[in-house]
Design a protein that fits this description.
TIM Barrel, 8 helices, 16% strand
């Protein structure tokens, strides 16, 4: 697949093994920017004692979000190349650190390599729940390849409007593609399952970042989720939008969310009937929450 790349919905069909680069810019070997215990994921992902999700931040992305807080790795490509064998070791090291889950962040463009690494790691004793932390811009083929390999899906559902998806993330047909992927995720892993400590062991957690000036679009997204998924999924409504990257200079996107914008979306979720819904405080909109992508834990134990 990676020699004629059709991993994501862009179907660039470049030969990455021969040095060709498609939209995402990814090459022939997985690139990882940070391995960490991340304590700022949702409560059901960090362990009852707050020890953290075992994040593996992958470089390169098949979106170009103008407000991306991780643009140094998603667009800039910062990170270190690793083999599938080293990636398997990283997964096992996260288990040794007692991570609550193995949290694979922006994994899409590396799906075949990750699947090989998971096979190697499981043969050596990996038992952590595997979380696929994605923008939601997934191809049907990649979704099918994940069947039986992922316990928890963490998709974004960013946009309902085609104009928003194209102008803010360069993502044609985003809503059609992402909703199709979410339905596949739900079909694969079923309704959310929590253990006795409230930790998510299996299921789909959909994240939606409310954007300035887009509250009605957020409501349309919530309407789709409720109609198609109901309370079978966990929802996370995020207020943490911070104008970063190109958004700092974009009219309408160069401001933070107002209290009214966010609370009106939260109220709408409650009115629809959602009972499994995380909300955020205004203090979440802060650049201090952005990870430092310094390569820790990539080539050896952090």
């Amino acid at each position: 697949m990676e020699n004629k790349c059709t991993i994501c919905p862009r179907y660039c069909k470049v030969n990455r093994a021969m040095g060709q680069r498609g939209f995402c810019g990814a090459g022939a070997m997985p690139k990882v920017a940070l391995v960490s215990l991340h304590k700022w994921e949702e409560p059901c992902l960090i362990g009852a004692d707050g020890r953290g999700a075992g994040t593996v931040f992958f470089s390169h992305c098949n979106l170009r979000c103008c407000f991306c807080q991780n643009h140094a790795i998603s667009e800039g490509g910062e990170g270190l190349e690793v083999s599938a064998e080293r990636l398997a070791e990283i997964f096992l090291e996260q288990q040794e650190r007692r991570a609550a889950v193995l949290d694979l962040v922006t994994p899409t463009v590396w799906a075949p390599w990750i699947l090989r690494a998971l096979k190697l790691a499981r043969a050596r004793g990996l038992t952590l729940p595997v979380a696929w932390n994605t923008s939601g811009y997934e191809s049907k083929e990649t979704m099918e390849s994940l069947r039986g390999q992922v316990d928890i899906f963490l998709p974004d559902l960013k946009y309902a409007d085609e104009k928003s998806a194209r102008s803010l993330s360069g993502a044609p047909k985003y809503f059609e593609i992402a909703t199709g992927a979410i339905l596949s995720m739900l079909e694969q892993v079923g309704p959310v399952v929590f253990d006795g400590d409230g930790q998510l062991r299996r299921g789909v957690l959909i994240r939606h970042l409310v954007l300035p000036g887009h509250r009605k679009e957020s409501m349309a997204i919530l309407g789709w989720i409720w109609e198609n998924c109901g309370d079978a999924v966990q929802l996370a409504l995020m207020s943490q939008y911070t104008p970063m990257h190109r958004a700092k200079n974009m009219r309408g996107m160069n401001r933070r969310l107002t209290t009214f914008e966010y609370e009106s979306v939260v109220d709408y979720a409650r009115a629809l009937g959602f009972t499994r819904c995380y909300v955020q405080e205004g203090s979440a909109a802060d650049t201090s929450f952005v990870p430092v992508f310094d390569g820790r834990g990539v080539l050896g134990k952090a």
